[in-house]
Amino acid sequence: MLFGAPGSGKGTTGKMLTKLTGWPHLATGDLLREQITRKTSLGLEMQSILAAGQLAPDDLVSRMVWDRLGWPDCEAGFLLDGFPRTIPQAEGLAQWFSGRNFRPVLIHLWVEYNEILRRLTGRRTCPTCGAIYHLESTPSKVPGVCDTDGAELTVRADDREEVVLQRLQTYQTQTWPVAETLRKNGILVEAIDCGEMDPESVADRIRWRLDRIGGSIAKKSKPE
């Protein structure tokens, strides 16, 4: 389970870990879109709730995840990104693991507060092709203009500083207790300080830690 504040790099890290381990990267947003695209009964139920401007309830989100974890590609292992987010989801996941042949680990991607602000408030997005830039680390060749199609870059609404601060507060008050719930249910919690590491190094460090916890799962290369 990949766990961390907004801007900690869960999505990028998950994709890289999939390449290292062969495990599917299961992000709840992707699972939801898949259910809606397939027009499953669960997807249609979710779509009607979201269309009404409501949050998806815990039981529906959990059912969506249980459905996906039953696919054959999850038998050897999987990466959860964005789940669980609430204490009921965490309790349900701990119960799901009970009696199954998995050793669950929650990986907490720790990034210092000011670094998260820098990452998110400096991000710029192309509204046409979806390319993502950063004012400091990956700027466009021409400031404010997409390298690919020349469109004017924009700031996502949830990347504005006042919104980022609210998201971080929500994380602290609502999401962080989820890690403690999992810990109390016997699930191992491992912290990775990834504030100054590039995404490839973060993924390799996590893979190495998982190898030490549960045996060889991927390529061997002890981090520096």
Give a short synopsis of this structure:
With about 220 residues, this protein is α/β, with parallel strands linked by helices. Helices cover about 45% and strands about 10% of the residues.
How would you explain this protein's 3D organization?
The protein has helices spanning 10-21, 28-38, 41-51, 58-69, 87-97, 113-121, 161-184, 199-214; strands spanning 2-4, 25-27, 79-81, 105-110, 123-125, 132-134, 188-193. It has 224 residues and is α/β, with parallel strands linked by helices. The chain has a single domain, classed as P-loop containing nucleotide triphosphate hydrolases (Rossmann fold, 3-Layer(aba) Sandwich). The strands form three sheets. A three-stranded parallel β-sheet has the order 1-4-7, sandwiched between helices. α2 crosses α3 (41-51) and α2 (28-38) packs across α4 (58-69). The longest helix has 24 residues, at 161-184. Residues 218-224 have low confidence and may be disordered.
Name the CATH architecture. Answer: 3-Layer(aba) Sandwich
N-C termini distance: 24 Å
List SSEs in N-to-C order: EHEHHHEHEHEEHEH
CATH class assignment: Alpha Beta
Number of strands: 7
Rough outline = globular
Proportion in β-strands: 5-15%
**Per CATH, what is the topology?**
Rossmann fold
Total number of domains: 1
Largest beta sheet, briefly?
3 strands, parallel
Unreliable spans:
218-224
Oligomer category: single chain
Helical content band: 40-55%
Sheet/helix structural class: alpha/beta
Name the strands of the widest sheet in spatial order. 1-4-7
